[in-house]
Write a structure and sequence with these properties.
With about 525 residues, the chain is α/β, with parallel strands linked by helices. The protein is built from 18 helices and 22 strands. The chain folds into 4 domains: about 5-100 and about 290-305, NAD(P)-binding Rossmann-like Domain (Rossmann fold, 3-Layer(aba) Sandwich); about 100-280, Rossmann fold (3-Layer(aba) Sandwich), CATH 3.40.50; about 320-455, 60s Ribosomal Protein L30, Chain: A (2-Layer Sandwich), CATH 3.30.1330.90; about 455-529, Alpha-Beta Plaits (2-Layer Sandwich), CATH 3.30.70.260. The chain binds nicotinamide-adenine-dinucleotide and 3-phosphoglyceric acid. It catalyses: (2R)-3-phosphoglycerate + NAD(+) = 3-phosphooxypyruvate + NADH + H(+); (R)-2-hydroxyglutarate + NAD(+) = 2-oxoglutarate + NADH + H(+).
Length: about 525
């Protein structure tokens, strides 16, 4: 049995990793002390890598990772992973988005309360033998307004907890509707509303181009005097210079920070301000969260190496069980349609249109489209192409991919038609899965056929006239090529026709050349699927 080498480069829960430890086909190496150079030097021998937020999985590291197939992030944020580079290399990235939600929300509440009551500052004074009750007068949370920017998993949990503290909550999230806010018992607002109204502002967005420095000089300017800020999401969402100035100018009364732009942060100027309290990125650091994320990521790594679809892909569409059950039977035919079609041309492919017809169209069919494109590219790019990088590789080669859906049924409960445009015209192939019989190619261009897409296939375009089949049969017999099945269709009597043969062995070029010597035969394609 093939053994896969797995590197774990950040501290993870041992209990959570047990499924991987017990898997006989996984060889786990835990190395928490490698510096960047050592990582670069050694990454080439690993099939899988698991990290938290500490290891920087840069483009350079990914480009050195010639055997890497999967990167697991035991947590939510993937801003330490060069996702684009991973996608280009066909490396799947998975994360564990649900396991630390609760802990991060609880940490946010702990920071909110500690900030409001100046607990860390008072504790520090006590440790320094100072009994000072005047300097640490706080504020109540009850009836204050908490502004939440980013109402995803953690933001929503924070909202529920803040309501429990009898706070008013106003939230901004591009996906938040008035109805949803009402249902949650909170107010829905724009970003400006949140900045203007809130007494405390907590951010819970990912770090993206759009969220970098979301709280900047202008944003602080719009806030209420005396506002307090919490960041238990990602360093970089807040412009740290702007926050520093806003605190020094007394516009902002305090800030609680679990994360900063550069970590570890020991000598940051913000930490020198009395108004700032901080923790060293501890939002997910609970026994429960660490066990949860380690289990989730381990299971996805195992699923991947067992050939099963992963649950939490970051650079591919995710497939829940319900969707998987519907689309999985169509995986083989989708890939074979792509593989088959590419044999029909010697020209550069400019455009691919994948049309889905039938019951399946209510679902996200992009996993099938990825299979089609993978099948097409595989012939020329080999095993390097997979479901992760197929669309990227097609785009890089200037191939436009279109997907369309139509309800109109044409005799099959579901039909997938793939059309390929080259400078010489278009060719197409359609396929389905027949109940109890499996995948079938049912149409090539406008001809109807019924062929299992497997093994060696000869596609012959010819003129419909007596004797062609006989001549062709004798020629194949002369070369000891046994015909397994044969399909014929034509445009009209005496017009253009197609013959599709499945044969028992690979057909050599010599046979193809001899077939083309027959006047009635216009084109021959030898296909090995
Ligand atoms: N401190 C920690 O240890 C810790 C632990 C867990 C998660 N996190 C971080 O917390 C953040 C949130 O995690 P999550 O699991 O809730 O993610 P999530 O994807 O469930 O939620 C993020 C939300 O932000 C919203 N959003 C995106 N752009 C926005 C914008 N410009 N303005 C307002 N909202 C926007 C999204 O619509 C989404 O609803 C992430 O940055 C994650 O990395 C930190
Ligand atoms: O995004 C996350 O999941 C958190 O920031 C946790 O990061 P960590 O795994 O390094 O604690």
């Amino acid at each position: 049995m093939k053994k896969y080498n797995l590197l774990i480069s950040d501290p993870l829960s041992e209990d959570g990793m047990r499924p991987l430890q017990e898997a006989s086909h996984i060889h786990m190496v835990m190395n928490l002390n490698w510096n960047t150079e050592q990582l670069l030097e050694n990454i080439g021998s690993f099939d899988a890598l698991i990290v938290r937020s500490q290891t920087q999985v840069t483009r350079e590291l990914i480009e050195r990772a010639s055997n890497l197939k999967i990167i697991g992030r035991a947590g939510v944020g993937v801003d330490n992973i060069a996702i684009e580079a991973a996608t280009e290399q066909g490396i799947i990235v998975v994360n564990a988005p649900n396991g630390n939600t609760n802990s991060a929300a609880e940490h946010t509440m702990a920071m909110l309360m500690a900030l409001a009551r100046k607990i860390p500052q008072a504790y520090l004074a006590l440790k320094q033998q100072k009994w000072d009750r005047k300097s640490y007068i706080g504020v109540e949370l009850k009836d204050k307004t908490l502004g939440i920017i980013g109402l995803g998993r953690i933001g929503a949990e924070v909202a529920y907890r803040a309501r429990g503290q009898r706070m008013n909550v106003i939230a901004y999230d591009p996906f938040l509707t008035k109805e949803k806010a009402e249902k949650m018992g909170i107010e829905y607002g724009s970003l400006d509303d949140v900045l203007r109204i809130a007494d405390f502002i907590t951010v819970h967005t990912p770090l993206l181009k759009e969220t970098r420095h979301l709280l900047n000089k202008e944003a602080f300017h719009k806030m209420k005097p005396g506002v307090q800020i919490i960041n238990c999401a990602r360093g970089g969402i807040i412009d740290e210079d702007a926050l520093y100035d806003a605190i020094v100018s007394k516009k902002v009364a305090g800030a609680a920070l679990d994360v900063l732009e550069e970590e570890p942060f020991l000598n940051h100027k913000l930490l020198k301000l009395n108004e700032v309290i901080a923790t060293p990125h501890l939002g997910a650091s609970t026994i429960e969260a660490q066990e949860n994320v380690a289990i989730d990521v381990s299971q996805d790594i195992l699923r991947f190496f067992n050939g099963d679809p992963v649950r939490n892909p970051v650079n591919m569409p995710s497939l829940d069980n319900e969707l998987l059950q519907k689309v999985e039977p169509y995986f083989p035919i989708s890939e074979k349609l792509g593989e088959f079609l590419i044999y029909l041309t010697d020209e550069v492919v400019e455009e691919i249109t994948i049309t889905y017809t039938g019951d399946l169209i209510k679902n996200d069919l992009s996993p099938l489209s990825r299979k089609v494109v993978k099948g097409m590219l595989k012939r020329h790019l080999g095993t390097h192409v997979n479901e992760v990088n197929a669309l990227y590789l097609a785009k890089k080669r200037g191939i436009e991919i279109h997907e369309s859906k139509t309800y109109t049924k044409k005799g099959f409960s579901n039909l997938i038609t793939v059309k390929m445009k080259t400078k010489n015209g278009t060719r197409s192939v359609a396929g389905t899965v027949l109940s109890g019989l499996g995948p079938r190619i049912v149409k090539v261009d406008h001809y109807h056929v019924d062929v299992t897409p497997l093994g060696h296939i000869i596609v012959i375009h010819h003129t419909d006239q007596p004797g062609v089949i006989g001549k062709m049969g004798s020629l194949l017999a002369k070369h000891e090529v046994n015909i397994a099945t044969m399909q014929v269709d034509r445009s009209n009597i005496g017009g253009d026709a197609i013959m599709m043969l499945t044969v028992d062995k690979h057909v050599h070029d010599q046979v193809l050349q001899e077939l083309l010597l027959f006047r009635e035969i216009h084109q021959v394609r030898i296909i090995d699927l």
